[in-house]
Amino acid sequence: MDRIIIRGGERLIGEVKVSGSKNASLPIFAASLLAEGENLFHNVPKLRDILTIARVLKNLGVKVQGENGAYRIDATEVSNNEAPYDLVKTMRASILVLGPLVARMRKARVSLPGGCAIGARPINLHLMGLEAMGAKIDLRSGYVEAKADRLKGADISFDTTTVTGTEHLMMAATLAKGKTVLQNAAMEPEVVDLASVLKKMGAKIEGAGTSLIEIEGVESLHATEHTIIPDRIEAGTLMVAAGLTRGNIKLHRCPFHNMEAVIHKLRETGMEIDPEGEGVRVIGSRRIRSVDVKTQPYPGFPTDMQAQFMTLMSLSRGLSIITETIFENRFIHVNELQRMGADIRIEGNTAIIQGVESLSGAQVMATDLRASASLIVAGLAAEGVTEISRVYHLDRGYEELDKKLAGLGANIKRVKEKD
Ligand code: EPU
Question: In CATH terms, is domain 22-227 a member of 3.40.50.800?
């Protein structure tokens, strides 16, 4: 298992390119199951989660070829309808193949994802929606088995806003007979990117990006070509890194307009973030002001930026309160930040952070994707050496973050070790 070793204290200076979005790529890969023909997707990030969804598709008999961020996916032949436990357990988003398989092939068997470090993360709303569209769902031996003649349009109202739930049912509805209405739908940019792909494939969708999405089912879809949007969470993580090191960096391909809540909060801490030419200039301030944050579905402050923002607040001048409203156990980074000297107290779903003068390097352990990012950025700002183990979590969702930070002047290296 690789480790990352950082000697903190270097200011980040320079230019860096934001990679394609993980959470847009995953449902878009699953969407290729909806049609015959070869799709071509550009700007796909090099990540472990992308390799996992590619394996899930290959296991279904789909042809998947990827090179330099471009993926050709051809689901003309789907020879199997099962996504096995071994693949799904490593990545929950694998469940997204269920709806497209039922919609096009009329049946599917997909392992239930099981528990997750950041919360229970049930998929009841995904299944409720597929049932409302006429699928017969059985849970047997840890698998969801779904069958349907042609799915039929339905009125579905989510009682909790769910990103992949919205994406899942939007995909299934494209081939259903009649109209599907999704109420209280997720409005995330990744949902909008998926809708763009589906529309290019011939789907009739209106309202993606609002809380009401309407899909008029069609008989069949066709393959398409698409460039994945840049990753707003990677961009936000790089911004926090600059904020923690009094850096001055320029982000290329930064999805500025999809990051309003994050940019607003970072500016409140004293950072300067402004469009500059094709990119975005990010300048850290000498004093980090403390700011309160509450995670919310988009367009609110994203839960996927909460851990990194907490690191920033650990070095602020004052007290800040961070409230996590999306996942019940997403403070797993706190223990490790405390070991680096952060002053954080947890009360229920709230973290109370008293800023300290400095963090000190320590041996820490990554426990999930965004937790590992928060420890990396903590290491950049800490005095001395920070050694982060279990960085496979980081590699699931950040394309070569260590190399990008090194390119900006960080003293960071990866030590490769055999498993
Ligand atoms: N929920 C239910 N029932 C459901 C589905 C969700 O109760 O059937 C609950 C969840 O337990 C949670 C809330 O609804 O409390 C919202 O979860 P959501 O379904 O929106 O999360 P997700 O779709 O599983 C995606 C991202 C996550 C991101 C969340 C929230 C992908 C592949 N994953 O997950 O990304 O944190 O939305 O924005 O898009 C990450 O990239 O690190 C990551 C975890």
Answer: no
